[in-house]
Amino acid sequence: MPVAGSPLGERKPALLFSSLEVMTAITQAKIYGGGCHCGAIRFQVAIEHDQALDCNCSICQKKGFLHLIVPSAQFTLLSGEDFLSTYTFNTHRAQHYFCRVCGIHPFYRPRSHPDAIDINLRCLDGNVLGDFQIQFFDGANWEDNIEKIRAIDGKRE
């Protein structure tokens, strides 16, 4: 359902996914919870793959962001939409969301996949880094390598 003025655009926070198609896909996916450090922002995500990206661009280096790109339909913001602030730079196409209380960046809408959500693997609950294969992405040379990130992700959406 659309939410007017929502930083996530089309998605209304909900505890359950809404479509039968998504529910079918979720039965084949692993469900993870996650959020920011202070707990103001909580989300749930269905993940169907085990590949994450470690990008060396300026913002990812500073944030320590490990990328897990998922279709928007597999992401649900459970709480904290009113605690989200947005940072943009350069082309202003990527929407980098962060908690205005604790400053953690749990997810964002990436320029490379504008219809997807990019989860910070480090913001999933528990010690899950070992569940994923982390591949290097040369984001410092983003324009030269964008097709590689799209190929790695397979543009699932």
From TrEMBL:
Matches recorded under Pfam families: GFA
Coiled-coil ranges per UniProt: none
Protein name: Similar to tr|Q7NFC1|Q7NFC1
Presence of the UniProt keyword Metal-binding in the record: yes
GO molecular function, one term: carbon-sulfur lyase activity
Protein family (similarity comment): Belongs to the Gfa family.
Residues annotated as domain CENP-V/GFA: 32-143
Key words, A-Z: Metal-binding, Zinc
InterPro entries reported in the protein's UniProt record: CENP-V-like, CENP-V/GFA, Mss4-like_sf
Stored SUPFAM superfamilies: Mss4-like
